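Data availability (excerpt). The following record was deposited with the supplementary files.
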Amino acid sequence: MKHLTFEWHGSGSLKEALNWPFSYFSFVGNSNGIYLIRFWSDALKCLTITVSMRYVGFRDEVGILIFNDGNEQYPGEERYDLPALFLEKRTVRKLVINDNDTLVESGIEFEFDGCLVTIVSGLFPETISISGLSFLERKSVPEMPMEQYSRVTM
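Predicted structure:
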């Protein structure tokens, strides 16, 4: 069985970055969906999430999450303050799908006290589906039905 893992391009470990205290959130998108999201720890440090498509069969492709650390903002990036609970410790789970005998790390889930934020590859290629942020009114559709993802605590 093949295994496609998240990609991490940053200092330290991805697990550490997923637990940074986040103050605000930003994203870039168009009519097809969201292509880039950022969770900002402060004005100088953020966790950027994008999606890259990978082939898992003759005609099938799935999205995996790509993580980067950095601090560059893009023109047109929409920014939102996050609730205080994003500064606290959270449970982080990776969301994995099994497609054509390939395990694909295709999403992440943050669980806070009474709040669940889910980020997975979107229905359109290289888009991101995000749920659990009440201020984000954009409709986003996951690549796969959510019941097909298994959850693994990181």
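Summary of structural features: The CA atoms of residues 21 and 89 lie 8 Å apart.
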